Amino acid sequence: MTSNPKGPASMTTTGMIDFRGVNKWFGPLNVLKDITLSVQPREVVVVCGPSGSGKSTLIRCINGLETIKDGDLIVDGQRLGDPATNMTRLRTEIGFVFQSFNLYPHKTALENVTLAPIHVRKIPRAEAEQAGRELLAKVGLADKVGAYPAQLSGGQQQRVAIARCLGMRPKIMLFDEPTSALDPEMISEVLDVMVAVAEEGMTMMVVTHEMGFARKVAQRVVFMDAGAIVESGTPDEFFSHPRTDRSRAFLSKILRH
Amino acid sequence: MLENFSFRTIVEYLPLFGQGLVTTVWLSALSFLGALAVGIVLCAMNLQRGWLFRVPAKAYIDAVRATPLLAQLYFLYFGLPRLGLVLPELVVGILALSLNSGAYVAEIIRAGILSIARGQVEASVASGMTYVQRMRLVILPQAFKVTIPPLLGQAIVLVKDSALLSLISVAELTRAGQLLASDRFMPAEGFLTIAAFYLLLYYCLKGLAALSARWLGTAGARL
Ligand SMILES: Nc1ncnc2c1ncn2[C@@H]1O[C@H](COP(=O)(O)OP(=O)(O)OP(=O)(O)O)[C@@H](O)[C@H]1O
Ligand SMILES: [Mg+2]
Fold first, then answer.
1. Which among A21, A247, B7, B179 is most buried, taking Cβ atoms within 10 Å?
2. What's this model's pTM, rounded to 2 decimal places?
3. For A75, phi and psi rounded to 5 degrees?
């Protein structure tokens, strides 16, 4: 049973991210099935679900790392796939944090943060570096400005990766399992940074199984299974009173860990 | 046998060997630059999605790798004049070496680029970089480091291949050996001497490779 989070009204109001009947296939595999979902400005939505359910694909469509087959996906008022939409330009408004960090290994932490602002946003170098230092300080890495990624721990690398996105002053931040490649003791340092970003009013979609994070900052949890949105509700509703067998089975699995 | 070995003649011919060595060095250097240019263009064509550029590039690379360099050299040396293009032997030689090595260089660069993890491409795409920015700022600087050692290996091959140019009477190192061999009937002296010079060049390039490896080693710690 697909439940529309906001009722029929959300079809008319335009959110920051609007999926309207989106379908995607990988060959014969229907990885996104008739997805309808609207994320409002400043809203934080957590996406969870079993492995292979299409969570990564869902958020990768938003910045065009994957392309959709049919349906409409409207991001910041622009329809993806529309000839009038400049995808490269739109991507500068969307930060994407990867599970595997993907920092540039040949650049220092500061250079990682300033590279796109300088070359894509065309911000003067001195100004970008000033902002970059402030961002690295904000994620608790003021002393790692000159360090190369290989010299940083996983948690530190992921914080640099978040700072790298923030350096572009995006309107939207997407996170694909940002803490699942980290040692347990490093998870909270990254989640703390994400909480701070959320509290500043960033529009966020976060694929994660971190219930603590979801309860703290998410307005909504979306549960996916086999390419479809099966359930959607506030964190409290979802974690305490899951409505479907599949979400109950899923929750019992992640709770056991 | 050694009592017949004439060091005197070698010394006598040393200026000729010197000239040959110098010619071998600079024609190899020029050919290598040519090969880099050819290789970069071929590789760029080969990495395109559309078949229009990719298929010809692949066909060219296969053709070069499947046929002997000597055949390619003769093809240019005897073929170009037929097309009305008469070039000095030296130019034909450099052209042949550039076109031949370029095919190998293209594959070396392509391997370097493809060795850069997909995550690097995705991160730079996600930050709004254009294809050119991505290549210039993220992919090529990383690929460059990976390709230097195999490129120097290709340079060593090129120096040895340049010996074939003696067959179209370019006065390079092997040609000097041939002259000594045929003028004085001293093939041992002639060819052993050039072998020694090729060995010298080999060690020079190997030294360069070791130096670059050390330089890459420190930079590699950043990787
Ligand atoms: N490039 C691709 N080509 C073919 N199939 C793919 C590709 N990427 C993903 N898939 C398939 O699409 C489905 C959804 O994948 P996706 O990565 O979105 O799942 P996920 O929910 O993020 O899973 P996980 O929790 O393991 O990251 C899976 O069945 C996966 O095997
Ligand atoms: Mg995933």
1. A247
2. 0.82
3. -120, 125
